[in-house]
Every structure is written in C-alpha cells, then in structure tokens.
UniProtKB/TrEMBL annotation:
Protein name listed in UniProt: Gamma-aminobutyraldehyde dehydrogenase
Protein's UniProt keywords contain Oxidoreductase: yes
Family to which the UniProt record says this protein belongs: Belongs to the aldehyde dehydrogenase family.
Region (Disordered): 1-20
Alphabetical list of SUPFAM superfamilies matching this protein: ALDH-like
Lineage, uppermost ranks: Bacteria, Bacillati, Actinomycetota, Actinomycetes, Mycobacteriales
Length: 491
C-alpha cells in the first residue's frame, strides 16, 4: 500500500498502477496503485483537520518531535539508503554518504530553526496605536517533488513547512515514492500527529494537477521541470494560493586562465556526474578560457573514462544508471542529435555487456556545440558536459548568463577580483568559487529567472511557509477618534 493518509497506509483508487523499477537491472521493486483526485481530497481533508491543533503547538513541542523524527530516521538509515539506491539507480555510496545523512541533517536543522521563528517586536508607529507582527503558518501546503533525490526533496519540502506549523500533502514522483513513505512512517513513530504529513503517490496529470488546483490548499511548493512548473503556477490561480517553484537549471562552470587546472578538471567531473548528472545544479556548460581549453578537455575526458559505471549496490561503483529507461533514452536522443553539429569527445553511448540490462549511459563530453544549439541551451539532466571557449572576462560572464535559467553557477579563478566580479554579475541563486555542488542546511537553495523563485533549506525558507500579520491595538480609548473626521465632519 503506497498512500499515507491520516497516519496510515492505504491503496490509491485511480484504477491505474505504476511499476517502480530498479533501473540498474530493470527488475520491478513494487507496484503502486496510483492516487486519484479523490485520494488527494482525502489527504487535504486530513491535513486540514490536523492543522488547527498542530499550528497551536509551541515551537519547542514541534522541535522535540522533529528531533525525535531525526533519531527514527537514523535508526532506519541503512534501509533508507538501500531503498533510495534501488528506486533511483543511485550508487549505494552516494545514498549512504550524501542523500540519507544530508536529509537527516536537514531535519535536525529545522528542529532547531523551529525555535527561532519570530515576528518583529512590538512598537508605537502611530502615537495612538501599538503595532506588532505575528508570523503565522499558512495552513495546508501541497508539495510536489521530482525523482532525482526523492528523500532529500521530500525533506526539503516537508520540514520547513511543519516546523513553521503548517500541515502537508506531498506528492512524490510516481516512479520513486518509496523513501517518502518511510519518512511519513518515521514521523508517526516519532509522535507527529496523524494528518500533519500525508503522502499521495499519483501521477502528475491526475494527482499532481488535483493538488495544484485544490481550493483548500493554501500553498503549492513545486520542484521539477520548468514546463510543469508553469502549469502548476496556472493551476494555483484557482484560489490564488501561494506558489514556490524550484525548477530546472543549466549551470555554467567558468574556468579563467589563472585557475588551478587540476582543481577545475576534478571539479567539473564531480560537478557534472554527481547523481548521474541528474541534479538541477549540476555543471552542464563548461565555459573555458581559450588558452587552456585543450588541456581542460583532455583532463576531463581522461577522468570521465576512468569513472566506474556499475551496479548500484557495489561500493566500487562511481556512477549508476540513470533513474529510468525513458529518461536514459531522452538523454541518448539529445546526444545523437548533437552529433550532427558538435563533436562527442568521449561517451555518447549506453552501457554495454553486463550493464546492457540497466539504464546506463556513459559520461559524455561535447565540444564545438554552438551557443544556440539544443545540447548547449536545453536541460539534458544526464552525465553530459559541453565545453565552450571564451576570450576575455566580459565574454565569459556574458556566456554564463546567456540562458533562461538561473539556479547555480561556479567560477574557477585565483584572482580575487575576478572571483568577486563573477559572484556579483552571474545571475543565479548560488555562485560557487573554486567548487561546484556543495550545499548546507543553513544556506538557502533556489533560483531566479526560469529556475523559479523562493528558497528551500535555511531559515530563509520560512519566508515561503509563513505569512506575517499586522496586529494593531488602539491606545486612545476614545469612542470618537481623531481620524473619524474623514467620515464625520467635525467643524
Ligand atoms: P517533472 O516536472 O516532470 O515532475 C516533477 C513532479 O511534478 C513529479 O512529481 C510529477 O509527477 C509532477 N507533475 C507532472 N505533471 C504535473 C502536472 N501537470 N501538475 C502537477 N504535477 C505534475 O520533473 P522530473 O522529471 O520529475 O524532475 C526533473 C526536473 O526537476 C528537472 O528539470 C530538474 O532541474 C528539476 N529539479 C529542480 C530542482 C531545484 O531545486 N530547482 C531540484 C531537483 C530537480
């Protein structure tokens, strides 16, 4: 049973099913009875019922329950890592060392942050009134998540929302729902009341769209592609609900001629191949000074060829398959089309031999793609890096910004002024200098331009999940107040 509504598991009632496949073998792990729009109604009703009492818990009470949840997750960390690895094709090393501990750290961060939520101090901004600011939860939050980091995305969506006193209905991606369900169970085990967090596993067309347009949902928080983000935003107009969108990316990776080339090459390989390149912040467009581009390309190609593709359960595996066969085929088709106008230096092929049964795709390095070409402009969301030369700093910054996206970027230089200029002028939600990928719970994550708006992680995310209320007390005790002159003429 793959729905979690009002504190217990049940089956979806759409009459349609979704097979959850291990993409490293093609084997089925589970079959999900998908949620219908009626199941979404049930989950929203449970979240609405739970909201009153949950929103009145003290920050300290919520914090204690969240800390206990982190403990339960730690007790189940091996199971979580294995499930995450199998349902997405993640190398077990990545799931064990990155996804699961990163998720638990995020839960612990929000357990602490719950206690520093505050409104502004009270004051007299009018001589006859005392004003104060109350920071309040919004109500029921609908969350929609993608398949690339299912556990982390569920945590990023759920914990700032409930730490602030909201209740949640989360729809994970239908092909990777299993760890979000364990997370919901952990919340119940920890003592979080039924209905505070509900999971509906349905497809985007029915359950996702139903959640986005639901008139009893106060906010929709969406992470996924820019195209679907647009339709979620449109659906949210049904009741003018608040919208938070974390969308696609096409991160530039700018290497200046003074950069430490070894660091840049290693950074490009790790930054482009993490999670098989299925990372919205992954390095996708290397923009490299013309004087060092040949050495950069040779270095990346050599390291790409040394990356071990292999079964997800093996510790020696560096990169697993892509998350689904359909997605692998989409990545492969984009690379095939690129052969017509660019050079594939290495990769550009699916896994062979004992990898042929899985959705594997080799790390792929592309040079010579024009800046108006598909492979350069569109999100591939796979292990594919393009390399483009630049002549001077102005051109580097212009190329970095020549994209509809603005999620993440990096600049590689040992020149302080170049580094500072890049952080100031590259338009993105995050700019790293001499690194690419690291994130931490205390710092915000989110984009600009068509990468969306609003922040995940950090206390900045409370701006999304709360509203502020102005409270104004009359101090004068006058039945006839001075400003009434605007209505009652007093001559
Ligand atoms: P997607 O947009 O296809 O799906 C995301 C979610 O939306 C899924 O749960 C899906 O079922 C649901 N959905 C699909 N159609 C819907 C509809 N009409 N109404 C409501 N919900 C609908 O994205 P994906 O392929 O799962 O994930 C990859 C995308 O996510 C990439 O573009 C990637 O950049 C983006 N992403 C962004 C971030 C970020 O933080 N900015 C993080 C991870 C992934």
């Amino acid at each position: 049973m793959h729905q979690y509504i009002d504190g217990s598991r049940r089956d979806g009632t759409s009459g349609r099913t979704q097979r959850v496949i291990d993409p490293s073998t093609g084997e089925e792990i589970a079959t999900v009875a998908l949620a219908s729009a009626e199941d979404v109604d049930l989950a929203v009703a449970a979240a609405r019922r739970a909201f009153g009492a949950w929103s009145r818990t003290t920050p300290a009470e919520r914090s204690a329950l969240l800390l206990r949840t982190a403990e339960v997750l730690r007790e189940r960390q091996d199971e979580l890592a294995e499930l995450e690895s199998r349902q997405c094709g993640k190398p077990i090393r990545l799931a064990r060392e990155f996804d699961v501990p990163g998720s638990i750290d995020n839960v612990e961060f929000f357990a602490g942050a719950a206690r520093i939520l505050e409104g502004k101090a009270t004051g007299e901004y009018s001589p006859t009134h005392t004003s104060s600011i109350r920071r309040e939860p919004l109500g029921v939050v609908g969350s929609i998540a993608p398949w690339n980091y299912p556990l982390q995305m569920a945590v990023w969506k759920i914990f700032p929302a409930i730490a602030a006193g909201n209740t949640v209905v989360l729809k994970p991606a239908e092909i990777t729902p299993l760890t979000a369900l364990v997370l919901a169970e952990a919340l119940t085990t920890a003592g979080v009341p039924d209905g505070v967090v509900n999971i509906v596993v349905g497809d985007g067309r029915e359950a996702g769209a139903a959640l986005a347009r639901h008139t009893d949902v106060d906010m929709i928080s969406f992470t996924g592609s820019t195209a679907v983000g647009r339709s979620v935003m449109e659906a949210a107009t049904s009741n003018a609900k608040r919208v938070h969108l974390e969308l696609g990316g096409k991160a530039p990776f700018v290497v200046f001629d003074d950069a430490d080339l070894e660091a840049a090459v290693h950074g490009a390989v790790a930054g482009s191949l993490i999670n098989g390149g299925q990372d919205c912040t992954a390095a996708t467009r290397a923009i490299v000074h013309e004087s060092i581009i040949d050495r950069f390309v040779a270095g990346v190609a050599e390291l790409y060829e040394s990356v071990t593709l292999g079964p997800t359960a093996e510790d020696a595996t560096d990169m697993g398959p892509l998350s689904s066969f359909a997605h692998r085929d989409k990545v492969a088709a984009m690379v095939e089309r690129a052969r017509g106008y660019a050079t594939i230096v290495t990769g550009g092929r699916a896994g062979e031999g004992n990898l042929a049964a899985g959705a594997y795709y080799h790390p792929t390095l592309v040079v010579g793609a024009g800046t108006d070409s598909e492979i350069y402009r569109d999100e591939v969301f796979g292990p594919v890096l393009t390399v483009t030369p630049f002549r001077d700093d102005d051109e580097a910054i212009a190329l970095a910004n020549d994209t509809p996206y603005g999620l993440a970027a990096s600049a590689w230089t040992n020149d302080l002024h170049r580094g500072l200029r890049a952080t100031r002028e590259i338009v993105a939600g995050c700019v790293w200098v001499n690194d690419h990928i690291p994130i931490i719970s205390e710092m915000p994550h989110g984009g600009v331009k068509q990468s969306g708006f609003g922040k995940d992680m950090s206390s900045y995310s409370f701006e999304e999940y709360t509203s502020i209320k102005h409270v104004m007390f009359d101090l004068s005790r006058e039945p006839r107040k001075d400003w009434h002159r605007t209505i009652f003429r007093i001559d």
